[in-house]
Amino acid sequence: MGSGIAEVSARAGSSVIVHEIDADAADAARARVEASLDRAVDKGKLEQADRDSILGRMEFSIDLADQADRQFVIEAATEDEDLKKSIFADLDAVVGSDTILASNTSSIPITRIAAATSMPERVVGLHFFNPVPVMNLVELITTVMTSPETESTARAYAGSLGKTVIQARDRAGFIVNMLLVPYLIGAIRMYEAGVPTREDIDAGMRLGANHPMGPLELADFVGLDTMKHIADVLFEEYKDPFYASPPLLTRMVEAGLLGRKTGQGFYEYDRR
Ligand code: CAA
């Protein structure tokens, strides 16, 4: 999702420095952005010259110190609370006193991440949806510590990307995943119970409710590790079995079947 957020930011005119953990990841991020922009050029939605100037506004770096002059930093690491806290603590030591730090976490309460910094008033949640260039929503999550200036700057930033902003409370799952994840978990439980096929469950929601993807396809698209992580965070927060990861989801994650990104989840994918 990080490359998608970087792409839409550069498209909107910002200078962007994408931070990655190593050179291979940085090359892969650049390749993802180039492929996305090239697809837009091929479809006649973007001029070649605009594609080149968007890429000219983007740098790919493996040194967090390169973020020092940034006004706005959006973190989009794996859904691991300790990892996110350590990234925010590191950023805290690098960025200037006016920089706003945002997390793209899909479920972890922002307060816990903000508390890892010395400037919790400048920390917000900005939750994007996948694929970022296509999905028009951003959830804005403020905490009891977020300053009004941080909130209005973050709202304006997301708006400048052409996204509709909705405001969520700092509770696990925010708005969308609080509704979406139990639905997806319900589909996995139905599949696990063994009556309908995966195709019938998905066709049911595609054709019967006009969803662009069925729930098992969507779970594979989101990533089954991410799905399980969100379910675990919701269960931990609300202590309601309704949110618990179904055994089948847990077993698939343990087996490394994570959906599209590994080539196998509820369906099989060609990873070329
Ligand atoms: N980057 C940029 N553009 C993309 C893209 C990508 N990764 N993937 C698709 N597109 C564009 C295509 O270029 C195409 O554009 P045009 O119509 O202008 O030509 C359009 O999206 C449709 O794409 P396709 O024709 O290739 O495929 P499709 O019609 O099957 O749509 C889809 C693909 C947009 C992914 C659609 O299936 C969809 O909307 N699925 C549901 C996605 C969803 O629910 N996302 C939210 C997941 S939850 C989440 O992200 C948050 C979380 O915390 C878990």
Give a verbal description of the structure.
- About 50% of the residues lie in helices and about 10% in strands.
- Strand 5 and strand 6 form a beta hairpin.
- Helix 1 crosses helix 2.
- The radius of gyration is 19 Å and the shape is globular.
- The two termini are about 20 Å apart.
- Bound molecules: acetoacetyl-coenzyme A (CAA).
- Acetoacetyl-coenzyme A binds next to helix 2 and helix 9.
- Acetoacetyl-coenzyme A (CAA) binds next to helix 2 and helix 9.
Helical stretch tally = 11
Q: Helix and strand succession?
A: HEHHEEHEHEEHEHHHHH
Number of strands: 7
The order of strands across the largest sheet is 3-4-5-6-7
> Strand pairing plus helix content: what structural class?
alpha/beta
Q: What proportion of the residues form beta strands (DSSP E)? A: 5-15%
Unreliable stretches covering 5 or more consecutive residues: none
N-end to C-end Cα span = 19 Å
Q: Report Rg.
A: 19 Å
* Biggest pleated sheet: 5 strands, mixed
Mean pLDDT: 96
